[in-house]
């Protein structure tokens, strides 16, 4: 047809680095914009920081005061650990916060019969917290040694695009229970937040062109501010006056108890709950959670590198990050929190939403964490955002984080039946196995593994309820063993492409993104 543009029927080109990123790891927005973006990262990480203590602290015997103190402590250690990881760890723009994978072992410890003798709830809280501290501090040795001694480098060196894709995909998709189900606890504010976030970040920028990308870059702040104000209006107007207690807790802006429980100024400090206790069974239980968290964080590192427009992490950088992640878990235990450390999935998703992968922005967010951890009342006001609003954010941010897993498939042969089997089977099992374990507990009150040892049964429950861990391990083992010697396997798995990222020195761009500051790479070289 005359004048018509004929479509070019060729595949999209393969990209080592993600195009379209406004600011990569080493480039920075203006200080004013960076501060606003950093505050947005802080706002996003508050969700997990509030949800974890809200679940665990009541089981320990704590009230609103203890919950507020634990949240302040979590904020403080998250700020410290984020700075350490971005300076000396992987050097990626990742927030290091609490992990949902520690909720189960923490609840197991909190409900242990050994604390039934304490009649005073405050004393019961302190004793159970001390046990969690001791278990976390000793369990942190596992990732610390695995990372700094190079064991994790050996493991991740055998990763390839095919085995990494299911891991990255299910790090975010595996948290589906924290998305729309959380939003659905108060649909009248959760759903408007979801719709408004999508409109501001995706539709309006294509309909209304501005000199500065205000809507897509600050969509979270704008949407949360509008819907939070709407929720406050409904609260003041008495819309929830005669509603059930659970609805009031989810929808009202004055039911979290954080503002009343928080101190005006409080400095979290090491061993604030007393000298940690050590129980061998609890240590092994926390080690299981630490291992799962390490696997999931590896997927988070891979996704963050993609959204920061860096090259994929060499194995030695992933190992260095694992070592610092272990030290972060030790810091969590030392300061007194019920959870270890992991890469914040929602903040990786925010990198994609804003197209800003700047390391400096995440470091600014860490300063906000430290600031609001000390000024308790002010931090508690922000932390009292209704959780259905947070659930709406998760629907978008968890999905965006997981989408980085699809990027890896561009290096694989999707016309290979071997590729299809490994992908399909590992992802399906990553969803199905945790569903079986969780469903078994709901119907019978205990896990499916009944060995006679309660500790072993709980360890199996912790490991096999992580979709990312199940899918990642299955894909890794299948890729290592299935048709390994077939002449086409190397290219079908994308291993021929991954070869240049197995070792730090094989790609000259590694120095640009992952070298240590202050000339430390000279004394601590990566291999």
UniProtKB/TrEMBL annotation:
It comes from the Eukaryota. Keywords: Membrane, Transmembrane, Transmembrane helix. One of its GO terms (molecular function) is transmembrane transporter activity. It is found in: Membrane. It is a multi-pass membrane protein. Its main location: membrane. It holds the Pfam family Xan_ur_permease. InterPro entries: NCS2. The chain crosses the membrane at residues 39-58, 70-88, 94-113, 134-155, 189-208, 220-240, 283-304, 361-383, 389-409, 421-438, 458-478. This is Nucleobase-ascorbate transporter 8. It comes from Capsicum annuum.
């Amino acid at each position: 047809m005359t004048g018509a543009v004929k479509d070019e029927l060729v595949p999209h080109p393969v990209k080592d680095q993600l195009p379209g990123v406004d600011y990569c790891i080493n480039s920075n927005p203006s200080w004013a914009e960076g501060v606003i973006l950093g505050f947005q990262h802080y706002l996003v990480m508050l969700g997990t920081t509030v949800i974890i203590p809200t679940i665990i602290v009541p089981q320990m015997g704590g009230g609103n005061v203890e919950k507020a103190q634990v949240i302040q402590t979590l904020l403080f250690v998250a700020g410290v650990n984020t700075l350490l990881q971005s300076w000396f760890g992987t050097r990626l723009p990742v927030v290091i916060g609490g992990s949902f994978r520690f909720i189960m072992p923490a609840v197991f410890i909190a409900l242990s019969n050994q604390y039934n003798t304490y009649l005073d709830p405050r004393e019961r809280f302190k004793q159970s917290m001390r046990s969690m501290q001791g278990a976390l501090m000793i369990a942190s040795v596992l990732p610390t040694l695995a990372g700094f001694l190079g064991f994790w480098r050996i493991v991740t060196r055998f990763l390839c695009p095919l085995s990494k894709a299911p891991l990255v995909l299910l790090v975010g998709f595996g948290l589906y229970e924290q998305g729309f189900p959380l939003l659905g606890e108060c649909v009248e504010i959760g759903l408007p937040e979801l719709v408004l976030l999508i409109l501001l970040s995706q539709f309006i920028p294509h309909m209304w062109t501005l000199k500065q990308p205000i809507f897509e870059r600050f969509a979270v702040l704008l949407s949360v501010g509008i819907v939070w104000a709407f929720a406050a209006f409904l609260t003041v107007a008495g819309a929830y006056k005669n509603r059930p207690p659970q609805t009031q807790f989810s929808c009202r802006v004055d039911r979290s108890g954080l503002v009343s429980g928080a101190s005006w100024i409080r400095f979290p400090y090491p061993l604030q709950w007393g000298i940690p206790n050590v129980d061998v069974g609890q240590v092994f239980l926390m080690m299981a959670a630490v291992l799962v968290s390490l696997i999931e964080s590896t997927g988070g590192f891979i996704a963050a590198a993609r959204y920061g427009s860096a090259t994929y992490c060499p194995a030695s950088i992933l190992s260095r990050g694992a070592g610092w992640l272990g030290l972060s878990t030790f810091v969590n235990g030392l300061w007194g929190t019920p959870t270890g450390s992991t890469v914040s999935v929602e903040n990786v998703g925010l990198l994609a939403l804003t197209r800003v992968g700047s390391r400096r922005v995440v470091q600014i967010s860490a300063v906000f964490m430290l600031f609001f951890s000390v000024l308790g009342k002010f931090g508690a006001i922000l932390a009292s955002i209704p959780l259905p609003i947070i659930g709406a954010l998760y629907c978008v941010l968890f999905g965006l984080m997981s989408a980085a897993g699809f990027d890896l498939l561009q290096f694989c042969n999707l016309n290979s039946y071997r590729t299809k089997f490994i992908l399909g089977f590992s992802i399906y099992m990553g969803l199905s196995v945790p569903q079986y374990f969780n469903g078994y507990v709901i119907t019978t009150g205990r896990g499916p593994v009944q060995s006679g040892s309660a500790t072993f049964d709980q360890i199996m429950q912790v490991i096999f309820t992580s979709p990312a861990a199940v899918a990642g391990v299955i894909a890794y083992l299948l890729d290592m063993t299935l048709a390994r010697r077939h002449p086409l396997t190397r290219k079908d798995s994308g291993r021929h492409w991954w070869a240049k990222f197995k070792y730090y020195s094989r790609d000259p761009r590694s120095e640009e993104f992952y070298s240590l500051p202050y000339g430390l790479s000279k004394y601590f070289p990566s291999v």
